[in-house]
Specification:
Layout (H helix, E strand, L loop, with lengths): L14 E4 L8 H9 L8 E5 L12 E4 L5 E3 L15 E3 L1 H10 L11 H17 L2 H4 E3 L3 H10 L3 E4 L4 H14 L2 E6 L3 H4 L7 H18 L2 E4 L2 H11 L4 E2 L6 H4 L13 E6 L7 H16 L4 E6 L17 E4 L7 H6 L3 E5 L4 H7 L6 H8 L3 E4 L5 H9 L2 E4 L4 H13 L1 H19 L1 H18 L2
Parallel strand pairs: 1-2, 1-7, 2-3, 7-8, 8-9, 9-10, 11-12, 11-14, 12-13, 14-15, 15-16
Antiparallel strand pairs: 3-5, 4-6
Helix pairs in contact: 6-8, 11-16, 14-17
């Protein structure tokens, strides 16, 4: 259904998003909110597996996948392996009511210790089998079909991420007749189904069906030019890059305009601690801890939803290495701009490089907009390293070396001219490549084209 903005005669198709999270405090949510910012809210709806629909999202309504859509096959369905999550629409008002009453989980969580042990045991078995996608099925329930048909989407926008998500996105497109827009955020097809009893069979199915949905898609997007180039070689299909955009109006009065080093010299990291960056972040923490022990006035603050990660506990040293809860996204600009240096780590092991080699982390554009110098500790053959090195916005350490890392830290601490050069260049690139007004308009045109072609 064609919808025009009466003032500008701009076409905004009705978009049904299918993905993991639409919360503005997560990496996927930040990118989603950035790309769809300015879109009429009534023309955005989403389907996903999170219980609560965040009130700060750009999306107007949300369908929570639950027990009516996701089921373990019999007899696994009889085992209490997880909380039961109720299926159905979610709206911001509903979320606020649930939080005020303290009832923020629609599911029925078993309090049995035995049930918890059973769940862990079954998860271990699933990991050994690599068979969850065979044993846990997802379907379009009658309730969800009605909800989707009422919305009448023009385009299904999906980030995929698994075989079941591929099949689910295809089912949504079959149901609605909408165009498919596939956005690849990281190279997950390379890393899925590589271990386990069922992995060989599942991997063949996943790769075959992934290629098929790419060929079916009217729009193919990727998170970096490097990923577009790689996927062109791999699948002989064209992709268009879309990075995480930023609202420069938010940053222009916050970004640094002087680069005097303060005491202590504060490095900051924000975001997840996971499969692609945990070891390099540990290296950074150990290097700073060592330099502090040598008498340098320096510290590292890590703000992450994984702030209780057990294997980081022994690294914590108050006022030297602090592992802290995440801050809300509206506080990120001031946090980054008030730091003396920012850390952007990617791991050097083979598995991490497979996963993140072609990705540009969501935080990169925000780091750049802060004008705070960025230390990029990542392998040389990654997209983020190429971007930082070729465009001169980050100080590179592209070899796994604590000696090189410490030297880079000392160089940033001691060279104000370098800090200014990096910060100024980064902000210039943020304006050129990540301005939300430019990116959002290009993104709108890209999604509007297949929708208009169907009219």
């Amino acid at each position: 259904m064609k919808t025009l903005n009466k003032e500008t005669d701009v076409h905004y198709p009705r978009i049904l998003l299918h993905g993991y999270s639409f919360d503005g405090n997560t990496c996927y949510g930040v990118t989603t909110n950035g790309l769809f910012g300015g879109w009429p809210k009534e023309k955005l709806a989403a389907i996903g597996g999170i219980e609560h629909f965040p009130k700060d999202s750009v999306i107007n309504e949300y369908y929570c996948l639950g027990e009516e859509e996701e089921k373990w096959i019999f007899p696994l369905s009889l085992i209490p392996m997880s909380a039961r999550r109720k299926s159905g629409p979610r709206y911001p008002e509903t979320v606020l009511t649930l939080r005020k009453t303290g009832n923020d989980n629609d599911g029925e969580q078993s309090s049995s210790k035995d049930a918890g042990k059973i769940k862990k045991g079954w998860q271990w078995i699933m990991d050994c089998l690599d068979g969850e996608e065979l044993l846990r099925k997802r379907r379009l329930s009658a309730k969800m079909r009605r909800w989707v048909n009422d919305f009448q989407p023009d385009v299904i926008y999906t980030i995929l991420g698994s075989l079941n998500n591929i099949r689910f996105a295809n089912s949504l497109a079959d149901l609605t007749g909408a165009s498919l827009a596939v956005h690849i955020m990281d190279d997950w097809p390379t890393t899925l189904h590589t271990k386990g009893i069922f992995s060989i069979s599942l991997r063949k199915k996943m790769l075959r069906e992934f290629r098929a949905i790419l060929e079916r898609a009217s729009v193919r997007l990727a998170i970096s030019q490097a990923m577009c180039d790689e996927y062109k070689k791999r699948y002989d299909l064209d992709f268009q890059p879309f990075y995480n955009p930023i609202d420069l109006k938010v940053w222009e009065n916050v970004s640094r305009n002087e680069w005097t080093a303060r005491k202590p010299f504060r490095f900051v990291y924000t975001g997840r601690i996971g499969v692609a960056n945990a070891q390099s972040l540990k290296d950074m923490a150990l290097a700073i801890k060592s330099l502090h022990g040598q008498g340098y006035d320096i510290c590292l603050e890590i703000y992450s939803s994984d702030f209780q990660k057990p294997d980081f506990a022994n690294l914590i040293e108050k006022n030297v290495i602090d592992l802290l809860p995440p801050v809300s996204h509206d506080r990120i600009p001031a946090l980054l701009a008030n730091a003396d240096g920012l850390v952007l780590p990617l791991d050097f092991d083979e598995q991490a490089q497979k996963y993140a080699r072609f990705s540009i982390p969501t935080k990169a554009s925000e780091y750049m907009a802060s004008s705070t110098p960025v230390l990029v500790y990542a392998p040389a053959n990654t997209a983020v390293s190429d971007y930082a090195r070729n465009d001169g916005w980050g100080y590179m350490v592209s070899k796994k070396s604590k000696v090189d890392l410490k030297q880079a830290i000392l160089q940033l601490m001691g060279n104000q001219t370098l800090r200014k050069q990096l910060g100024t260049r980064a902000y210039q690139l943020a304006i050129r490549n990540h301005d939300s007004e430019k990116v959002q308009e290009a993104f709108r045109r890209t999604l509007a084209t297949p929708a208009c072609n169907k009219l």
